UniProtKB/TrEMBL annotation:
The N-terminal zinc finger binds to poly(A) RNA. It comes from the Eukaryota. Residues 276-583 form the Protein kinase domain. GO terms for molecular function: ATP binding; poly(A) binding; protein kinase activity; zinc ion binding. This is PAN2-PAN3 deadenylation complex subunit PAN3. The gene is PAN3. It comes from Microthyrium microscopicum.
Length: 673
């Protein structure tokens, strides 16, 4: 049997490798369109390749199956010259292969919804002619693994992800007809004038290609290397499992409540308090008071916050509370934002409460790098036993990343005339991979408020110098894997040379040098480590790209969810006293048939067809209101409709409006269709 591999033939082949749903009639992909545009399609027989003249357009039935090919009067000859790849300089067209009829063909215009339907139906292959076992994996026609790009004549053959390139097609037709190519605006290019004025922006918006191609997916970098250009995995359509799990975990942590908790039910305007620090053993070294930390939801804005309570604090001067004001104005990505402070007696004592941003599933650097020795704990805050203390090597890259983020926070703090004063492993939150935030800032300003300074501008020069020393100690302790190594810094610095560069060692040494020896400032630190900051920035940019790419996979999720919700609200709805007239006739009937077409498709043998590309492709075309036509067949095979996705979309919208008009308690807002 001949084995066609190109043009229509590859469509047939795809039907066998990934059979189409019963009754599916994708007229846009009919073989004749390919022939009309590109003048030839490729056939292969006994290992040889042949060109099929464009005049075949008038005889589509001649190549609908392999068996019909054998009866064709213009049968291909084994002596025909072999297929030669398209030359780029001819715009993908070989003049010798173009018939005069094709050359004079009118430019292609997409079908509108009311255009007459073409009867280029592709006869369905029967089970006796083809069996799936005979067929290798579908490869789009014209796919050249060396180039890794689709040839223009195959743009629409791959279904999802390939995309019909109207620009290429138009150019090809123009060059075929020998006419000069008009200037075609590419609406996706940046405005060459570089202007950001509203007028320029809106003028360009009118140039978007119609119909909109919102049903096509285009993968963004970074790419997986081991897939061919036309291949997609189901993961490409959704957010990655790891990322989903991570966000799910954060979500659960944010929503967590303790049903039988002994913690206060309310504190000021906060409710649902959950303790984050479950240890009864409290350390008052840093603030001079034992501290407790809770997650709580504000009834004012519904957001979740972290509340830090200083137990037993007695406010003696109202101005002390005001010392937090300048901290509220600081907005830096490497800090935990502080929102408010108030006193309370709700715990039975006099407590001071600081309201801060809540970062779910975060841990402190102390918990992360010194799990046992620094905390003297056997359990982490989730009740899991901590590993035996085993200091792990921390890469130099991580240390520079910490240094860069803390330096960025210190830059803002010092520029605001303040000092952090708490650069301690237990007061730095790790909120993501190598992503840290300086926590508990401003607390010491309130707690150590000096009443004699009221009305005077307090100077934090000494504290700022001390911040740099604390930063040096922190990096040294993490690098050495020991929380108390800063007590003997010289020995520890010598030890660092074995694992880290001299540059890091010198930097720590400079930070640790006593303030009186030389004038140190955050600006000097930043200029000295600028080279390392650039590396950190580059890593962050890569991480940002990865997240953006992950975000792009969810581009269509919301739209698809809305379509599914609407379809399920409309279909199989029982009639009752409130819904007398609800029946699935008229428009609703073909919505039902469309549902079968999308979800209940079967292959040529009648087996269920589970094809994610088909389902997503159909739903996206539906949402975009594509003018592509499909044939819907009833389950008994008695009724068939040829409709466009646009028609179905309109039917769904109408039915949903009817339904929305009848309901008085819809969860879906009427305004948000
Ligand atoms: N803003 C926040 N968002 C989310 N979790 C936080 C926040 N602040 C602290 N936590 C968590 O609360 C826990 C306790 O934090 P805390 O700052 O009290 O550290 P600690 O090691 O208990 O220090 P101390 O011994 O001084 O109380 C830590 O696990 C930390 O991850």
């Amino acid at each position: 049997m001949d084995t066609p591999i190109g043009g229509i033939a590859s469509e047939i082949r795809r039907t066998m490798a990934s059979p189409r749903p019963k009754g599916r009639e994708n007229l846009k992909n009919t073989p004749c369109r390919n022939i009309g545009i590109f003048g030839f399609c490729k056939y292969e027989k006994d290992g040889c390749a042949y060109n099929h003249d464009a005049s075949m357009k008038t005889k589509p039935q001649s190549h609908s199956t392999a068996s019909s090919e054998s009866t064709n009067t213009s049968r291909f000859n084994v002596d025909s010259p072999s297929f030669t790849p398209l030359q780029p300089q001819t715009n993908g067209l070989r003049p010798s292969a173009i018939s005069p009829r094709s050359a004079n063909a009118a430019p292609f215009t997409p079908k509108s919804s009311n255009s007459p339907l073409v009867s280029h139906a592709r006869p369905k292959p029967t089970a006796t002619e083809w069996t799936p076992q005979e067929v290798a994996e579908f490869v789009p026609q014209g796919f050249d693994p060396n180039q890794g790009l689709l040839q223009p004549d195959t743009q629409n053959a791959t279904g999802l992800g390939s995309g019909f390139d109207a620009y290429t097609l138009h150019s090809a037709l123009q060059s075929m007809a020998g006419t000069p190519q008009p200037q075609i605006n590419n609406p996706y290019l940046q405005d060459p004038s570089g202007g950001l004025s509203g007028a320029t922006y809106y003028q360009n918006s009118g140039a978007f290609t119609q119909p909109l191609q919102y049903h096509l997916y285009s993968p963004l970098a970074p790419h997986r290397d081991n897939l061919l250009a036309y291949q997609r995995t189901s993961h490409d359509f959704f957010i990655s499992e790891d990322l989903r799990r991570e966000f799910q975990r954060r979500n659960e942590a944010s929503l967590q409540v303790l049903p039988n908790s002994t913690v206060l039910p309310h504190l000021d305007h906060f409710h649902s308090l959950v303790p984050l620090d479950t240890l009864s053993q409290k350390n008052s070294n840093i603030f001079g008071y034992p501290t407790w930390i809770y997650k709580a939801v504000s009834s004012k804005d519904g957001k979740t916050y972290a509340l830090r309570r200083l137990e037993g604090y007695r406010l003696t001067n109202e101005h002390a509370i005001r010392a937090l004001q300048p901290w509220k104005r600081i907005d830096n990505g490497s800090m935990v934002t502080v929102h408010d402070v108030f006193t309370t007696r709700a715990f039975g004592d006099s407590s001071l409460i600081f309201v801060m941003d809540y970062h779910p599933c975060s841990s402190t650097l102390a918990e992360h790098h010194f799990p046992q020795s620094a905390q003297g704990r056997n359990m982490d805050r989730f009740g899991n036993p901590v590993r035996a203390y085993n200091p792990q090597y921390v890469s130099e890259q991580t240390l520079w990343a910490y240094m860069a983020q803390l330096a960025s926070a210190l830059k803002i703090i010092h520029a605001g005339g303040l000092a952090a004063q708490v650069i301690h492993p237990s007061k730095i939150l790790l909120t993501g991979k190598n992503r840290i935030r300086l926590n508990a800032c401003g607390i010491l300003d309130v707690v150590k408020f000096d009443a004699s300074q009221v009305g005077m501008q307090r100077s934090f020069k000494l504290e700022q110098q001390e911040d740099l020393v604390q930063l040096g100690r922190l990096i040294l302790c993490i690098a050495a894997g020991n929380a108390s190594v800063y007590l003997a810094p010289h020995k520890a610095l010598d030890g660092l040379s074995r694992a880290y560069t001299g540059r890091l060692r010198d930097c720590i040494s400079w930070l640790l040098s006593p303030p009186q020896e030389q004038t140190k400032s955050i600006d000097i630190l930043l200029s000295e480590i600028s080279g390392n900051i650039i590396t950190v920035l580059d890593n962050q940019l890569h991480a940002f790209d990865t997240f953006e790419s992950a975000l792009a996979t969810s581009l269509e999720d919301g739209r698809i969810a809305r379509i599914l919700l609407k379809m399920n609200l409309i279909l199989e709805r029982p009639e009752n006293e409130h819904n007398h007239s609800w029946s699935e006739t008229g428009e609703r009937y073909y919505i039902k048939m469309f549902r079968d077409y999308v979800f209940h498709a079967v292959d040529a043998q009648g087996r269920a067809l589970v094809d994610l590309s088909h389902i997503l492709g159909c739903l996206n075309r539906l949402d975009a209101g594509s003018n592509e036509t499909i044939q819907l067949t009833s389950r008994d095979g008695e009724t068939a409709f040829i409709v466009t996705f646009k028609d179905i979309k309109r039917a769904i919208e109408n039915s949903f409006s009817d339904l929305n008009g009848n309901t008085n308690s819809s969860g879906l807002s009427k305004g948000r269709k």
